[in-house]
Write a structure and sequence with these properties.
Layout lengths: L2 H11 L11 H7 L6 E5 L5 H8 L3 E6 L2 H13 L6 E5 L11 E7 L10 H11 L1 E12 L19 H8 L6 E14 L5 E13 L1
Parallel strand pairs: 1-2, 1-4, 2-3, 4-5
Antiparallel strand pairs: 5-7, 6-7
Length: 208
């Protein structure tokens, strides 16, 4: 088991459930008005986004490196009656990438403290290539640590801006439209009852 897989397997196995099971609210905000088609959910975790997309009528390919997380997502999809709409695939996205093109490619908080330098940029470039004509690439990412995390052991970790993400994608802007380029500040609660705020970047691009 390589470092990336081991890290995320440990992350999920150490707890019976990591996430709430609900879809990321910024995904809901940005995708809720779109006509359902095919969707690729990168780093799907326990499947909250994938299940929500399937409930809206999308045919979803949900990808993660953790088999534990994928199994939890699949169980949840079966429980809610949308299993037929989701194809769960295990990929270490730095090494392998799902085939096909999609009407929506979603990368929600695709951060990793164990990923090699440049890997995230490479994955997002592959994500852009997987967007079908007329489709959407949605990248939602943290702008920094939450306000109560000032003593985080990785406090110096760099969170790319939307401008940096766009520059790394190196897209032909004659073929892409930047529909949303925004940073959203939200109130949040930490796992131990902390209260504060955290900023998130939202970048929504449409391929012509």
């Amino acid at each position: 088991m390589d470092t990336t897989e081991q890290h995320w397997e440990t992350f999920y196995r150490d707890r019976d459930q990591v996430w709430t099971g609900k879809a990321n609210e910024l995904l809901v905000r940005e995708v809720g008005h779109l006509t359902p088609g095919t969707a690729l959910d990168l780093g799907c975790g326990e499947g909250g986004d994938a299940v929500w997309l399937a409930e809206q009528g999308w045919q979803v390919t949900a990808v993660d490196v953790s088999t534990t997380a994928l199994a939890r997502g699949a169980a949840r999809a079966t429980e809610l009656g949308v299993a037929a709409r989701i194809d769960w695939q295990r990929h270490d996205l730095g090494r392998t990438f799902p085939t096909g093109v999609f009407d929506l490619v979603s990368a929600q908080f695709l951060h990793s403290l164990v990923a090699p330098e440049g890997e995230r940029e490479s994955i997002l470039a592959r994500a852009a290539e997987a967007v079908a004509p007329g489709g959407v690439l949605l990248v939602v990412s943290h702008a920094g640590w939450a306000t109560w995390q000032h003593d985080h052991p990785h406090a110096d970790h760099h969170f790319p801006t939307n401008a940096e993400v766009l520059a790394s994608l190196d897209l032909d802007l004659r073929k892409w439209v930047v529909e949303v380029d925004e940073t959203v500040e939200r109130e949040m609660h930490g796992p131990n009852g902390e209260h504060g705020t955290r900023g998130d970047h939202v970048l929504r691009l449409r391929r012509s």
